[in-house]
Amino acid sequence: MTTGDAPNAGRGNSSDHVRRHNLSVILGLVHRTRGVSRSQLTRQTGLNRSTIATLVAELVERELVLEIEPDASNQVGRPSPVVVPSRLVAGIAINPELDAIVVGLVGLGGNVIRRIRTATDHSPSVQEAVVIAAAAIEQLRPDLAEHRLVGVGIAVPGLVRAEDGVIRLAPHLGWVDEPIAAMVETATSVPTRAANDAQLGTMAESIFGAGRGVTDLIYVNGGASGIGGGIIAGGEPIGGGAGYAGELGHTLVNSDGLPCHCGATGCLDTEVRRERLLALVGLSDADDDALEAALLAAPSPVVIAEVHRQLDYLAVALRTAINILNPELIVLGGFLASLYAVAPDYLDRLLATQPLAASRESVRVVRAQLGSNLLMIGAAELAFEGLLADPASW
Amino acid sequence: MTTGDAPNAGRGNSSDHVRRHNLSVILGLVHRTRGVSRSQLTRQTGLNRSTIATLVAELVERELVLEIEPDASNQVGRPSPVVVPSRLVAGIAINPELDAIVVGLVGLGGNVIRRIRTATDHSPSVQEAVVIAAAAIEQLRPDLAEHRLVGVGIAVPGLVRAEDGVIRLAPHLGWVDEPIAAMVETATSVPTRAANDAQLGTMAESIFGAGRGVTDLIYVNGGASGIGGGIIAGGEPIGGGAGYAGELGHTLVNSDGLPCHCGATGCLDTEVRRERLLALVGLSDADDDALEAALLAAPSPVVIAEVHRQLDYLAVALRTAINILNPELIVLGGFLASLYAVAPDYLDRLLATQPLAASRESVRVVRAQLGSNLLMIGAAELAFEGLLADPASW
DNA sequence: GGTGATTTGTTGTACCGTAGAACATATTAG
DNA sequence: CTAATATGTTCTACGGTACAACAAATCACC
């Protein structure tokens, strides 16, 4: 017996598509779980175990997955082999930052194999960033020889048009209308896609991190260059018409606030800023862990006041987002997670009163789990997307 | 050749599901378009024309659709019969208002066959509303005898849990935690579902109204009891975890604003209100058309000032929503459409500066098209959902 | 430590649904 | 009136999954 399957759009479905779809579902499950037994696959897909056998056999044939010895499960019955992602398959993740270009080699299952951070002494141009990324990929050549490269994904701190991977605006890098995906694809000859970094972080946390198994969540990240976010609704990442969705940082939180670079005033992004925290704890430059340690170590009244002030504004933005999207989960990343770590009860109390009662009672707040690998894993999702959609074409 | 088909979740797919899916796709197209030729169906679904023939034949057999004479199309080639929704199939729509219960009989294709409005002299209890609705359905009995009733849908001015159709809060009716879907289902013995009225209006406008063919839109409605809204993202209605999504009325628009019944302060819903407009044009009670006529007829400075004030706040809420969701289209309904009719340029100018540039340049604002039938059509969508998902089971 | 119960892999067959080809039919263009 | 074109109709082929029967590997129990 096979259950449910609710495909979309106005498209029909033929046997060809059934095969493609089923291969895609299975490879997707193997990817997300990093290892499932064949018997679990039969249960989760609703397909017959003979069908699972042929489908898995095709994926093994194509060297996309491996079947390994069943683990001692203390279960009655014949043990079922575990299907794991092939270690051959890999994607490249690129993340340009203000002062560095990070390039990573990521295996199926979101496993970061290697990672090269190239610091830059100035904020690079897109051309420079592409050259640096290409050089880093060159460095990876020995590793690449052992892998099958299926794509490149770029996590950009700015607005990226989903359709063609053009950066419309990366304010802190000063990039405007730059076709970064096309440029990298030209340089690497590997299919390349680009998207907003926070959206990719959202996908990563949703698949491998704090949002596993949750269909409706909001991710909000606080970084050095500001606040970004992403949305998963009904289990799907929400990109909007062009790919610019998720900009929770430009929610109004203070009518009397300062003008924001976006053109409006009183945005979350203008009120809640990392620099202010750094200044208060006497750091000029620090990573998230150091900042959080300093905040927790020095709970002076001034620090607490600022933390509360920022949480007040965060709560206002979250109230709006909760009312609009009714998420089950809010995932906080970067220094927003630190703010929450310093005063969890304070934020919880605010969120227990501001949003509509029905929506607020079912929402949980947690911190992100993937840490420094977040954007590598997220960008790699973009790289894997084509493969996961149609495993048989590879 | 058949193209694309991207089903969801971790479910597999077998021949049984293919058939169900294809029937569902075709009935859905016939429903949405209110009439498609078989040749159009082959093109839009990508299925072979022999397959379309058998699928349509099954739907005809089940009396869900009819094939009618092709219309003179001036096209070369053999004319293709037009597939239209069967006039037999109908759903019941229920919409409780503050001073009336509206019940309608709606045919497949969103065609409102009959509509009964039962005025109440006081704000009814849920029990009263159900009794009144049941009585109205009784009145429809002669019509019902000629139709096949596939479901009941209820559009509730409040938060409704999607799972079981329990009203969590309908503030203006004073209803809390009322299992209205179950109550109506008991009274009618017809499968019944309930949802928020603005969400259903969103679906209706998206399928039959201003949002046809648009995959990412926001609908915002201004009614006597406040502001509601709904979201379509990636072509799908967004309900959130429990079904409470779309509450754009409780976005912060004024930090110095008044407390709102929702628990927060400065909500759009507290600043932008229909009563204020009614008072300024000297009406105590008027429908949307009368209010709009009065606003357009009497553009006194005071009226213009209030219209601008309300549009200022609406723009702030839309800016936040646009930044979060990047819609292609914003559909305004109720008195919000009237505000826009009075000063379209004013709102357009605000929206041309406040949201992020990339998002604002691709968004259009239009008014809703379905008028007084909006909620009947929307609620009927709920009634039809089961049928459209699996036509063969009926 | 053997035996039965249980679960799952394996193999071969049946069935279902769609695709495709060939032919029929209805329209337009000239 | 004829050719071109598009679509309906019919029949056959093919692909993919389900199912049944059997084999294999584990656990539970005595």
List the helices and strands and how they pair.
The structure is a homodimer of 394-residue chains.
Chain A: H1 15-33, E1 36-37, H2 38-45, H3 49-61, E2 65-68, E3 82-85, E4 89-96, E5 100-107, E6 111-119, H4 126-139, H5 141-145, E7 148-156, E8 159-161, E9 166-170, E10 175-178, H6 180-188, E11 192-196, H7 197-208, E12 217-223, E13 226-233, E14 236-237, H8 268-271, H9 274-280, H10 288-297, H11 301-325, E15 329-334, H12 335-342, H13 344-351, H14 357-360, E16 364-367, H15 374-389
The structure holds a DNA duplex (30 and 30 nucleotides).
Which sheet architecture does the biggest sheet of chain A show?
5 strands, mixed
Estimate the strand proportion of chain A: 15-25%
Assembly level: homodimer
Give the low-confidence spans of chain A. 1-9
Largest interface: A-B, 83 and 82 residues
CATH superfamily of the largest domain in chain A: ATPase, nucleotide binding domain
CATH class type of the largest domain in chain A: Alpha Beta
Shape of chain A: globular
Radius of gyration of chain A: 22 Å
Helix segment tally of chain A: 15
* Count of individual beta strands of chain A: 16
Rounded mean pLDDT of chain A is: 94
* CATH fold assignment of the largest domain in chain A: Nucleotidyltransferase, domain 5
**Order of strands across the widest beta sheet of chain A?**
6-5-4-7-11
- Tell me the domain tally of chain A: 3
Query: From the coordinates shown, what is the CATH architecture of the largest domain in chain A?
Result: 2-Layer Sandwich
